[in-house]
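Long-time lurker. I teach an intro course on protein structure, and each term I like to show students one example going from raw sequence to a predicted 3D structure in token notation. This year I'd like something fresh instead of my usual example. Would anyone be willing to generate the tokens for the chain below so I can use it in lecture? Attribution to the forum is fine with me.
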Amino acid sequence: MLKKTGIQTKQNRIRRRFTSLSGDFFTAMTLLSMAVFLSVLFIYVYNVMMSSPYFQIKEISVRGLKELTEKDILASANIKPQQNLLAVNKNSIIRRVCSNHWVETVYVGKELPGKLVLDVRERIPLALVKRGG
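-- Reply from a regular --
Happy to contribute to a lecture. Here you go:
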């Protein structure tokens, strides 16, 4: 049986290390490429959904009103016409509507594809003072 010379052994070691490193490099580059591709894809889908007319607010339903009018609630909610339903910030609408002293709580719901629901619970007055005639 022939023994391998020292030079052949070194060459084989170098070859094994090189193939191992090149395989690791290829795997890392593949994973990095996939991450970049998925990021770009998600950004594109997000932009398409935010600019799509399919998700524009077509109807606003206001429920639970007794003393206030729907016009009062919509004015305080400050919802822009043709706004995207996915871009609506529920917490800011709740904060703006609850700034009215008649409003106790507000529930803001989204019904896809284009309906926004405001469920208002008004405060119960203890007494009403009628001024003037």
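Some talking points for your students: DSSP finds three helices and three strands in the chain. The chain has two domains: 1-51, 54-122.
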